[in-house]
Structures
1.
Amino acid sequence: MNPPSLPGSTQSAEPPEREQSPWGPERRLPESTPAADAATTRAQEARVPVDLGRRKSLNGEKLFRWLTTGSGAAVLVIIVAIAVFLIAKAIPAIQGDKVNFLTEKTWQVPDRVFGVAALAFGTVYTAVIALIIAVPVALGIALCLSHYAHRTVATTLGFVIDLLAAVPSIVFGLWGREYLIDPVRDLSAWLHKYFGWIPIFGSDGPYGKSILLGSLVLAIMILPIITALSREVFQQTPKMNEEAALALGATKWEMIRTAVLPYGRPGLIAATILGLGRALGETIALAMTLGGTFVISWDVVEVGGNTIAANIANHFGEADDFGRGALIASGLVLFAITLVVNVTARVIIYRRREFRSAL
Amino acid sequence: MAKRIEAVGVTAYYGTFKAIEDITMTIEPRSVTALIGPSGCGKSTFLRSINRMHEVLPGARVEGRLTLDGNDIYERNVDVTAVRRNIGMVFQRPNPFPTMSIFDNVVAGLKLNGVRKKSLLDDAAEKALKSANLWDEVKNRLGKPGAGLSGGQQQRLCIARTIAVQPAVVLMDEPCSALDPISTGAIEDLIFELKNEYTIIIVTHNMQQAARVSDRTAFFSISQTGDPGRLIEHDVTSKIFTNPREKRTEDYITGRFG
Amino acid sequence: MTTISTPGIGTDLRGRRLPKWAPWAIAAGAAVLSYLAIYLGGLLDGGWVLTAVVAVLLYLVLLAAVATGVEGSRAARNRVATSLIYSAFVLALLPLLSVVYTLVSKGVSRIDADFFTHSMNGITAFDANGGAYHAMIGTLEQVGLAALISVPLGVAAAVYIVEYGRGKLATAIRFFVDVMTGIPSIIAGLFVLAFYVFGMYKFFNHGQGGYSGFAASLALVVLMLPTVTRSCEEMLRLVPDALREGSYALGIAKWKTVMRVVLPTALPGIVTGVMLAVARAAGETAPVLLVSGGFNSINFNPFSGNQSSLAIYIWDQAGAASQYAPARAWSAALTLVAFVLTLTIVAKLLARRSKLK
């Protein structure tokens, strides 16, 4: 049985193959490796859907284009929606206010007497002090990482500083309230004792949650952000300009001043303004470390200080519908302030496009 | 003003990599010396070790003895900034400070050295720009950014910036490689004039340029990749190009190698 | 030769240099002086912090004086600037190290099984136990939903900006994406409060407004969208044009090129950007506080009813009148930071490995 069936089976298998590919012999003429066959087959298969798919892919193209354009436009829609909804909710509250919302300092919503003056002042004041503390230090660290420290050290520490930028603000707030408050209390007393003649250290106590504490926490929070941006900008200084300065006989510091700082100035300004934007909008850390008063005072050591965002977080829980409207109205003011700051920063950055990747 | 440079057994490293080994040569004042050789043979490294720019790179160091009119520039209590002030450098790509005006670029070195008086700076800038054959082209726009000039003008600006501090030696690291032929011609003319006052050492890949501008030529080479570059031959330019002592020099000059 | 006299430019190579040990000697001297005057002498009330500060200031002044005398003013300025730059570095590290130390030392006390498996349901001010299980669920659900919405939207917007965007609309979108990154998080919270919690949500809830985890997700979307778009945009720009052209040359439609060639090439970078955005969102407190309501018990459903999150949990416990609450707050903070930093580190390592960057 076996010997006759073997040739029979091969015979029966071969003819259909020849039938399926009548031009098979010609095709095999050049080279008949299996890989080449497979490639040709694939090419032939691929050929068919191209013709069919053309019309289909035109539709797909259109759909895809609309989808992506729509997603892009969603950003604009959201920005507009934020403004519209905040304004819509704020109007009834401002209309129900018995005093001028922009100039009133206190926040007595049940009496319909409330205003954003002290809060807006506190927001800007706290943020500016934080910047004054953070920017020089950030500048120093950025230069240290970009031009002074050994490269492996700089890479590692740069990584750590990037990580610190990711630590949630509530953690900084918790640290400020539970830990930093004691040293700051001592510092306040010391500052008042020896520098009390300067009005900002005028308060004779008690000390505790103050603008000084809030600004310090805030400064520590924005430090990694400003550092990361400035370092990136400084690292982009063309090596050839640094070498040109050195070849003229500049000391390292003179090289930094001649080549690095002028080149990085726009980026540094942008980083500072972005840091300011972040500081203005910071909520939770300040809600935990500021005293929450409603006065306009330059004194940084007295218990007090407040910001628009911190006030929203602190008073949101007890607010009724009207109270929420009032808080939203204050949020609208904050939105306007940060918008101005951010647009300014972006305009500066857009003038020097090469810095955009750093931000 | 121009000074003699002597190198004795100069060896330079990048970290553990030895880039040049045992270079010994004397460079006479008021002359142009061209350093030629295939890529990676250490010409630029040697050039950069003459004004201690080599050590700017992390891990780079130099051994041996380099003297400027007999004063060892690698001696322990030598001030690096003084070395670089006395041995100026022009780089491969024109590198004027992008944030400074033409005028500020020229006087940048003087300002670093504490010259503040406006009249002194004005005089120095005019003199340096005239020496660099650039004065007539820029005298009416000294306050404009240096980056607005053409490549050749920028390079001459950089030369003006270098000679404004009145160095003894000017090092040039392929100063024409980024320039068009006309600008190159202008720079070459300038080099010819400058050698009356300065000792000039120029690294170039262009052998015609070496033949045109230099009095003496030094040929550097490596035996194989990874080996340090060595000085093969240093002689009067005409001799190097017509009748070199070494076979390797001849091969390189005639284009059979490198 | 006519040379103009340029004062200050010497041709002498040798400058007088301070010996290597001099700065150390000055530092030691400043430390001793400060110790004697401030710490022992009690000048300005003493204390070790003041001693250290005065020592550093003394060091800078003495160094400047000595260096000016020996090396000249330029070298002195260089030395002082270098010292200042390094001190800025140390100065900044101190509080940051303190945050990390405090977080870990106070946070480990409640890192136990109970903390990860129980909610605060039925926990009174006198109970030491209680956990953050419900908060962790909230954080994961809210951030997950936010990512589900913002990632496709953000990637599509980035594709528009890089591949399709021309003219004014594209410029406007790019500009406002950048501006949107600077919107304070509390504003996002207020917006969702007005738009969803006391707006849209009424349609699903018989005309009643209400807090929910999903509202928190929406607020996080507002915050994540620009971040995702920006990082994705950066990555798409890094994809070489040669790849696109190679695909077009094969007759492949643009949208298929984007989907099959451009996006896969940029994928590692996009994933990094998304993870960083998620990490940032997970730590957000203010907007979530406003719209999710906070809750002591487990609520698995993000679409209805109050929900907690780790950040709110920390806020609540930090403000709670119980001697056991601070420990819970710190442990939750440690958990949150561990989660956020793990995401960030993985994302950054991924970015280093990616070929494009």
2.
Amino acid sequence: MDLNKKFTPETWPANPERATLEAKNKFVGFWLFIAGEVILFSTLFGVYIALKDKGISGPEFSAQELYELPLVFVMTMLLLTSSLTSVFAMYHMKNYNFKKMQIWLSVTAFLGLGFLMLEVYEFAHYAQLGFTYNNSAFSSAFFTLVGTHGFHVAIGLVWITLLIFRNAKRGLNLYNATKYYTFSLYWHFIDVVWVFIFTVVYLMGVVG
Amino acid sequence: MSSVAQKRSFGATVWDWMTTVDHKKIGILYLLGGLFFFVLGGIEALIIRLQLLKPNNDLVSAGLFNELITMHGTTMIFLAAMPILFGLMNAIMPLQIGARDVAFPFINSLGLWMFIFGGIFLNLSWFFGQVPDAGWTSYTSLAITSEGHGIDFYAIGLQIAGGGTLMAGINFLVTIINMRAPGMTYMRMPLFTWTTFVASALILFAFPPLTIGLFMLTFDRLFGGNFFDHTMGGNTIIWEHIFWIFGHPEVYILILPAFGIFSEVFPIFARKRLFGYASMVFATVLIGFLGFMVWAHHMFTVGLGPTANAIFAVATMAIAVPTGVKIFNWLLTIWGGSIKVTVPMLYALGFIPSFVMGGVTGIMQGAAPLDYQLHDSYFIVAHFHYVIVGGVVLGIFSGMTLWWPKMFGVMLSETLGKWTFWFFFIGFHLTFLIQHWLGFWGMPRRVWTYMDGQGWNSANFISTIGAMLMGIGVIIFLINVIKSHVQKKPVPNDPWGDGRTLEWAIPSPPPFYNFAQTPLVRGLDSVWIEKQEGNESGLTPAEPVQDIHMPNGSIIPFLMTLGIFVAGFGAMYRLETSWGLPVLVLGLFFTFATMSARSLKDDLGFYVKKEQVLKDLKEKGGKI
């Protein structure tokens, strides 16, 4: 593949993320990877549901008492919005508008960072209350499920930061278009997982 | 193995193998690594049988016995059977679909090194004197209270190896979806490719639960988690569910590729096309699907209740239907064929009755009330060895013998091969047939020794003799490999003379780009069709000779895995030493740094020039 080939919005292919064989491989491979991740998170959800409120040292550590919806609401909004901005970025990627794509991806990254910092705050807050990882089966299940999601967010942030800086000077080509696109797939997936966490962990936790 | 490699210095050759992304070389490394662990697991099995040779034996201590059975099972499943099958899949599947490499050569290499380092990690436990001892299923009621670091070696070692398996699965899936040659539709794919495809799909959906299960086990033991500690609200049954949601599909991950191998062997040596190709494909997919619906039949005695047990019993018995379809198709493939009884064919013929016996005892256990009687007895041991050895291991031997000339350019001796078969086959039945009765007579599995006067003495003695015969068979196989490689007679493209699929139309071993020209596939058993129509090369090219794009080698997969390996030791010694935590962090940091390096550095591959391809073709005497 010739990385120096110059495109214009007119010559840029309609689906740049799968215009070459390697790109197609990465595209299909990433969807399969997400399928595996779905199973991985399903297992964690199953474990969480089985261990909910099990072994807690006091009523203040039950799901109903512990969770604070306002904070989680803000986190949800940040992450959902970041998913939207990543869609804008992909829109500009398909139109071969590199600068706008980079800007929207940076916005995505900042929103993701905001989410992650609030999650760190939330965890620290729980730990301060005494609800640590070792507290009970419930706490282990909670921190493992939500923490695994947070870890995915962190990986995504490192990934997109590397992509933004690596390609800042050379623009779009058919090699990195796939990388950007798979990142956006990943980001949407993380978002979907969060929707389930928000529902199953927080909403169902508070409602009881 | 190529003539180029021999001219290089030793160091350069080692470097070449460490950095290779060539699917054939990775296949060879998987195969050799798997064979090494197969011998290791076999030695463990022999010690187990020697301990049980006579009543009140004290060859090994009770604790060591637990370690031996745990490591035997774990090694054979994760480090022997799967890697050997992966070796064959890697080396052969891309050839069968007319591809020049797999979809992700880099990830392929990463998967290989994760298997090797995971296997080393697990087996280093022997040198640390703290060996996993909770059985290969590692039920957590035992595992979280096991002293020393044995279970940690199990959890972290399998975590590393399992990660590699997951990557290999995704890689095979994408290869088959995207990289088939022109004309190679799904319903023209050889059965070995089909079973690779379905087994890879099972890997994709079965291994993530294992990943989570092993993480939870690790967290419970090393980081203060409480998933399985009932005093803290945990629940050990969760582990059993997760383990078997992984574990049952796992046995289909093992047996389906073996089915694929036999589906190649029968048509070649009966010289007749596979009977009921479409129903074979359908049965494979159906077995794969049903494989996820039956995990709780391992847990009938847990107390899930009659409704759950009944549902899982019915689902279990349903699997007999597609399996029966396969058995009858194989029989009808042989029927009326012009049969050549070669070594691969011998294994295939021996497989049918052996595997049927294993399958029938499986149905017996599928009946939940009977399972209450059979549970945890030697009947179970006999059953799963009949399906794993009588199915998977015979398949592995058959496939290795069949494709050895294609992978290494060396034909294995037929005479020694037949000696191996008869020793192994007779030894196998001698070892495990009698164990059914041992189970009926009440001998529980996983016992270190037994008392005199229970009527178990002669049966155990016979079983041990059988195990030794199997050992002799494997030794003859190893002698065969060494002898054949010393003689090193060159082999033609199609050494068996009746090859039907694309791999038999290219040199043995193939050039690193496999096909000088991508072939055009005009039907099932492409090479057979071409030969029938008078095209002796067996191939119709789909493109002119042109530059060929190939991937670059890389050391990064090796380094990435090294980081995880080191981090594993850090995690294990975090609690009792001061260096544990820094080593854990450093190892993970190193891995993430190498991942970033991979992301930042463009890797566009290189081109084999058209002139070079033409020159190779001329030397090999091939036609264009």
